[in-house]
Amino acid sequence: MHSLFVAPTGERVRQSMRGASEITEDLRVVAVAIQLYGIVHMLPPPFRHYHVMQYMTQIYRDTRIDGEQGFLLSDGRFARRAPAMLVARAAGQLIPRTDGYAKGEISSRRELYSEDVW
């Protein structure tokens, strides 16, 4: 079983990206993440957001898990779903769908979901 990585927010982990100008080919989506109470909880591929929620229910036993869902980027920043989609698209990380949509179609959604990248 993988362990849950918990990172405090700060200079390296931000609530969202400041702008598209920071997107480079080297920047990649590396993990699913949920930010709650200023802490980013993440798990590496192939985990989904619900796996992170399962771990978080063990940490925050009597708290509703309603943090901001997003992704951890290769430079250590947290990005919400929409900015993460821009990063994944620029990095060529989007994969063809195996079910739902039309098989083989690449997502044209505005927001990124883990199913779009792994």
What does this structure look like?
This protein is of the alpha+beta class and 118 residues long. The protein has one domain (5-116). It has helices spanning 49-59, 81-91, and strands spanning 5-8, 29-36, 39-43, 68-73, 78-80. A hairpin with a 2-residue loop joins β2 and β3 (39-43). The longest helix has 11 residues, at 49-59.
Number of strands: 5
The coarse silhouette is globular
What gyration radius follows from the Cα positions, in whole Å?
A: 14 Å
Q: State the distance separating the first and last CA atoms.
A: 18 Å
The overall number of domains is 1
Order of helices and strands: EEEHEEH
Q: Describe the biggest sheet?
A: 5 strands, antiparallel
Structural class: alpha+beta
- Classify the beta-strand content into a percent band: 15-25%
Strand order of the largest sheet: 1-3-2-4-5
Short description:
This protein is an alpha+beta fold and 118 residues long. It contains 2 helices and 5 strands, in the order βββαββα.
Salient structural properties:
globular; 19% helix; alpha+beta
Helix and strand topology:
Layout: E1 5-8, E2 29-36, E3 39-43, H1 49-59, E4 68-73, E5 78-80, H2 81-91
Antiparallel strand pairs: 1-3, 2-3, 2-4, 4-5
